[in-house]
Write a structure and sequence with these properties.
The complex is a heterodimer of chains A (106) and B (457).
Chain A: H1 2-11, H2 13-46, H3 48-52, H4 63-105
Chain B: H1 4-32, H2 38-41, H3 47-81, H4 85-132, H5 138-148, H6 165-179, H7 183-188, H8 195-226, H9 250-299, H10 306-330, H11 336-350, H12 352-360, H13 366-386, H14 388-392, H15 408-424, H16 429-447
Helix pairs in contact in B: 1-6, 1-8, 1-16, 3-4, 3-9, 3-10, 3-11, 3-13, 4-8, 4-9, 4-10, 5-8, 6-11, 8-9, 9-10, 11-13, 11-15, 12-13, 13-15
Classes of the chains: A mainly alpha (106), B mainly alpha (457).
Organism (chain A): Candidatus Dechloromonas phosphorivorans
Protein name (chain A): DUF485 domain-containing protein
Transmembrane segments (chain A): 25-46, 58-83
Chain lengths: 106, 457
């Protein structure tokens, strides 16, 4: 029974749309986070002194601190963006898919 | 104590795992799982074998993580009540057993929420009071801290803990993907009603985490100046000597310095509650692996009654309590942040690869999952065992057999590679069926249709 339901959902073009859209969105965001974070880790690994430089002449605030603080804020903003879109657009689409599969079932 | 900027890097790495969990795992976890994360790997693979493996690696990760928490708790109690360290460890272990046996997951969830709020409030208060002494100027703070600290300007450089590139990358991998492989974190996804709630929880949790890490960073720098220059906080009153309670207790000293005994008492109580809650959550995750996976699904093949499952879970909790006590005593001298890093490294290698492959890769078969899972676990544990922190510091051998302290960079590829090779070469009939079953699993993972309701454990 449920396998038949899954089959109906799978052939629904909306399902393909959901998977493609959400997949692209999630992977793009993940790619941004991963590349920024590991880019940063590479600097820590191979050129740590670059992070210890002051942001401006004579300042005690270093580049590393500013970069990290930015990443904290930026990554969290990305989570917020994802949650917003997933909880509205993607969830609505999901509900439609399930509803249509039920209808066909009857 | 992780010094200065190094600590900040650690914290970013912990934090960066959260968005990745959200983007790639959270909703699939919620849609496929029910009780422990092995529900997901066991969805289309051989229940008995896969669950046994997941339970074993969960237990290993839980034990590593318990070491860090027990050491922290022991030092805190020792500092507060002047108890012997060993006695303090026993007290924590017993409290944890009582707490989990009588409370369960619902209790730990509530305690987590309340204590998180108190921790945020207390930490913020200490930070504001301490930071006000520097007129809230970050530049002044850094200037003073660097001039006083023995590392000097190096304080704001990545340094001591990330001594070489390999360690830095390995630690980054371990912390980031370790969060996605910690059994007690993954378990939380099954306590929320649906994928929507799961996403929101990640958003709130990661927001608190990010905020609090930045508070801690400021606190740490203030601590260097305020605590580091006050003879009151050093043994025999010698500034620069051995700190009372060890380097892990700087935050406690700072709260006393800026807010007196009242604030110290408050923060210590909250810190203790935090550790107790984490220890209990860990014990619960470990006990569930034993009772839900090993006992109910593997030994009893799904015929166990709920009552007997709960009984097994309680016995398991008590056993884990004693294990925690022994580990806490053995590893007394270890740096807490470092031990946490190791626990994450093992989780990243033992749990994460198989979990992510089972959700994303159609071709994963039971054989591949077993080789990948055990391979990652064994290699991560061996790397840790042969590294300086255990081979030399605990077992007192002259030189480490493995030159790096962090396992993730080496153990994770081993796990992925083994899972891939042994799945690809698996031509059994069973493997064919497992690959076919991926289609249904995939639809359920995407839509949540047929997902279990929230579990209250």
């Amino acid at each position: 029974m449920s396998s038949a339901m899954y089959e109906r959902m799978r052939v629904n073009p909306k399902f393909q749309e959901l998977v493609a859209k959400r997949g692209r969105f999630a992977w793009t965001l993940a790619f941004i986070v991963l590349s920024m974070f590991y880019g940063f880790v590479m600097v820590v690994a191979f050129n740590p002194t670059a992070l210890g430089q002051p942001v401006s002449e004579g300042s005690f605030v270093t580049v590393g601190v500013v970069v990290e603080l930015f990443m904290f804020i930026f990554f969290w903003s990305l989570t917020a963006v994802y949650v917003r879109r997933a909880n509205t657009e993607f969830d609505a689409l999901t509900q439609e898919i399930v509803k249509e599969a039920w209808k066909e079932n009857k | 104590m992780v010094k200065g900027y190094d600590g900040y890097i650690y914290m970013l790495a912990f934090f960066a795992g959260w968005p990745i969990i959200l983007f790639l795992m959270a909703e699939r976890l919620r849609n496929l799982g029910k009780f422990t994360f092995s529900d997901i790997t066991a969805y289309r693979l051989d229940q008995g074998k896969v669950r046994t493996m997941a339970a074993i690696s969960s237990l290993v990760v839980v034990c590593f993580y318990l070491i860090a928490q027990m050491v922290g708790a022991g030092q805190l109690i020792k500092l507060l009540f002047g108890l012997e360290y060993n006695v303090a460890i026993f007290a924590v272990g017993i409290l944890m057993m009582v707490y989990v046996t009588f409370g369960g997951m619902v209790a730990t969830t509530w305690v987590q929420i309340i204590k998180a709020c108190m921790l945020l409030a207390g930490g913020t208060l200490v930070m504001v009071l301490a930071f006000s002494q520097f007129n809230f100027s970050f530049a002044t703070l850094v200037e003073k801290a660097s001039s006083l600290h023995k590392l000097g300007p190096k304080l704001m450089y990545p340094g001591s803990l990330l001594a070489d590139p390999v360690t830095a990358i390995s630690l980054g991998l371990g912390l980031m993907f370790g969060t996605a492989g910690l059994p007690h974190i993954l378990m939380r996804f099954f306590t929320v009603t649906d994928a929507k709630e799961a996403r929101k929880s990640v958003l709130y949790a990661s927001g608190f985490v990010a905020y609090f890490f930045n508070v801690i960073f400021i606190m740490g720098l203030c601590g260097i100046i305020i605590v580091g220059q006050n003879p009151e906080f050093f043994e025999a009153g010698k500034v620069g000597g051995k700190m009372i309670g060890g380097g892990n207790m700087v935050a406690m000293h700072l709260s006393k310095a800026v807010g007196g005994d009242m604030l110290l008492g408050f923060l210590a109580a909250v810190a203790f509650a935090t550790i107790l809650a984490v220890v209990s959550g860990l014990a619960l995750a470990g006990a569930s692996a034993i009772s839900h996976d090993l006992y109910a699904r593997v030994i009893k093949k799904g015929t166990a009654t709920e009552a007997s499952e709960i009984r097994v879970s309680k016995i398991a909790t008590i056993c884990l309590g004693f294990v925690a006590i022994i580990l806490g005593i053995l590893f007394e001298k270890q740096n807490i942040a470092f031990m946490v890093g190791l626990a994450f490294g093992v989780a990243a290698a033992a749990n994460f690869p198989v979990l992510i492959l089972s959700m994303y890769w159609k071709g994963l078969t039971t054989r591949g999952a077993l080789f990948g899972g055990y391979g990652g676990l064994v290699s991560a544990v061996l790397f840790v065992l042969f590294s300086k922190s255990v081979w030399v510091d605990v077992l007192h051998n002259p030189a480490p057999l493995f030159p790096y302290t962090q396992p993730a960079l080496f153990a994770m590829p081993i796990a992925f590679l083994l899972a891939y090779i042994f799945s690809k070469t698996d031509t059994s009939v069973r493997a064919g069926k497992e690959i076919e079953a991926f289609e249904d699993q995939y639809v359920r993972a995407q839509t949540g249709f047929g997902a279990s309701s929230a579990s209250n454990h």
